[in-house]
Design a protein that fits this description.
Layout: E1 17-21, E2 24-28, E3 32-36, E4 104-106, E5 112-119, E6 124-132, H1 142-146, E7 151-152, E8 159-161, E9 165-172, E10 179-190, H2 204-207, E11 211-220
Parallel strand pairs: 4-11
Antiparallel strand pairs: 1-2, 3-5, 5-9, 6-8, 6-10, 7-9, 10-11
Pfam families: LPMO_10
Domain Chitin-binding type-4: 74-218
InterPro entries: Cellulose/chitin-bd_N
């Protein structure tokens, strides 16, 4: 069952651009986005008022093309997909999370979280995590997600992407799991590497594949009814 919420899907026109290095040029149109539940910078697509628009919400990939490779680094990305050492726009207090808005509510008795991902990337894998984040005024961290991996119905811990398009999955809500403020995390580790590995320092994508991360604010296991359609 889909989480309770008003959903409006407005597909954007994906950027097509040209970039060159050492007299090489390529067209880049790679994109991926957590559509349902909407990621933190996609709430404008749900017609949520007074939120900031991110017209590039399909390219939250940790600043891949511009981040240098650093050996022995534990984390490659910010918690919710921002460049690790840059502005954390998708964490609480950042540009797109000025206030904590729950976009989907899953009442007591729900067994699954329905998710939809859209991408034109042909290969890779999806993983999902959840942080039972009761302190909504504090940013989430890596360790909270690492302790709460979600199972994907019919697939286990990992869903392998073998074709581009729209992927609809169901995440298993753990037994007796409850939280008034949860942060759902989607991670997409692709098979894409950079073609431009002539510069110094070496780009991260020359060593590590492109990665997308989105976070969404949800709530699970309260006494809300399916007739409740309002955001908190």
């Amino acid at each position: 069952m889909q989480g309770v919420g008003v959903h409006f899907f407005a597909r954007s026109s994906f950027e097509i651009g040209i970039k060159s290095e050492n007299d090489f040029a390529s067209i880049f149109i790679s994109y991926a986005r957590l559509v349902e539940p909407p990621n933190r910078s996609s709430l404008w697509r749900d017609r949520v008022p007074w939120v900031r628009y991110n017209y590039y919400d399909y390219s939250i990939n940790c600043g891949e093309e511009y981040v240098p490779y650093i050996a022995d680094q534990k984390y490659w990305c910010g918690v919710c997909g921002d460049p690790l050492n840059g502005a954390q726009s998708h964490l609480y207090g950042g540009n797109y999370v000025r206030r904590y808005i729950i976009s989907r509510k899953y009442p007591k008795g729900y067994k699954f979280i329905s998710v939809t991902v859209e991408t034109n990337v042909r290969q890779g894998l999806f993983e999902f995590f959840i942080c039972p984040h009761e302190f909504s005024s504090v940013a989430v961290n890596h360790s909270c997600f690492e302790n709460h991996r979600l199972k994907i119905k019919g697939f286990g811990d990992v869903y392998y992407v073998i074709n581009p398009g729209v992927h609809k999955l169901r995440l298993v809500i753990p037994t007796d799991f409850r939280c008034n403020h949860c942060v759902l995390k989607w991670r997409f580790l692709t098979a894409n590497y950079s073609r431009y590995c002539y510069s110094h320092p070496v780009r991260r994508m020359c060593i590590h594949p492109e990665e997308y991360i989105n976070c969404a604010n949800i709530a699970i296991g309260t006494n809300w009814t399916s007739s409740s359609l309002k955001h908190l």
